[in-house]
Amino acid sequence: MAKNFYEVRDPIHTFIRMDKQERDVVDSRPVQRLRHIHHLAMSYLVYPGACHRRFEHSLGVMELAGRVYDIVTNSENLTDDLRSLFPELTNVDQRNYWRKILRIAALCHDIGHMPFSHAAEGVLPNGFDHELLTKDLILSTEMKDIWRKDRPTLEEWDIVKLAIGPKKLPDVTFSDWETVLSEIIVGDAFGVDRMDYLLRDSWHAGVAYGRFDHHRLIDTLRILPPPGSSRNLEKPGGNGGSIEPSLGVEEGGIQSAEALLLARYFMYSQVYFHKSRKIYDIHLKDFLVDWLDGGNFKIDIESHLSLTDNEVLTAMRSAAKNPSAAGHIHADRIMNRKHFRRIYEYNSNDFAKNPLAGEKVFEALVSNFGEENVRFYSYNKSGGIHDFPVRLDTGDIVSSMQHSDVLKNIPPFKFFNIYINENHRTTANQFLNDRLEDILNIGEEQEDATT
What we know:
- The longest helix has 25 residues.
- With 451 residues, the chain is α+β, with helices and mostly antiparallel strands.
- The chain is built from 21 helices and 9 strands.
- The chain is 50% helix and 10% strand.
- It has a 4-stranded mixed beta sheet with strand order 3-4-7-8. Strands 5-9-6 form a 3-stranded antiparallel beta sheet, with helices on both faces. Strands 1-2 form a two-stranded antiparallel sheet.
């Protein structure tokens, strides 16, 4: 007799459960392809255990999405104004339908990733990214057959909206309900995509930075009105209109929310932006630009589904052995660990003297050692959106930034690494030791001359 429910063992969530319709999606080509896409690109060259793939991450995101949905739609956590605002909550069939849509959207949210995930994102035609490829795959004939195969039939655009979210689909109209559900997957504060990758990446990399009490956090998540509003979802003034709700947390879960956002900060600073990990990303991109026809991945569905890390690694191993092959020099650097070495990194003293310190050092090194021998990576953004609603024990809704001193003080991500060909490392180090102050002052003099 055919099984209606299936279980998959998982090191992070113990068991991941799915029904037959979800199993059909798991068995599809777009999802099975993720078995051959490394989640952390070539991080395994730095963290040997980080060999996990997008496939198990996608299963984990589906599992967490279902858990969050069950909590925030639990009748004990619903107020009358929520039931009024979201009629989907009062209809059993609608609640079950949207739970299925959410879980499948979570399962499919990464199917558009290129080989080696984010490391290869820059090798796509201008204006394209993996989210748009995800949309095309969900809307493809192959996947539509799955959406129509069982009952209830699933609307593909419902899946697209929840898998990608309004930020990446600015021309698509989202209802408040769809916006909240998409936030469960891709939200800046409590998206389960983030929850799973922090826990999973930390476990596989062998570090503790990404751990937090996700069980407690999920149990305290709620759909709440914005901070500063009344205690319900009715506009101030009693005009009967509604205001946009979002995911927030009960006061008892604020420490778990802080731990999540601190885990993100530490994982970015210690793992995702590790100096050697980033230079492998750069060498990989250089190889792909040389190796791919036209220097870009093809974005038609069949080409996308036919290309995984396996094909790229095979080509890279071959190119590393053949000096006349396209991308040989970059493949050799990766395969034989001849990667460029960091020679300069973000330094608060240097950047205080000259805000363009990184650019000036890079230009000076390129001028003296050649563009082919120097690479850089920079990132300067806030630690993420930390302003979410918190419901106090009194029932009042406040901003997390107002309530939490921890969140106020999470520093921004600031990284500026410059790398040099190993053959020039000693000379370049001596060059910077002798000339750094002059390089920084030249930048200041140029700036003074223009003001």
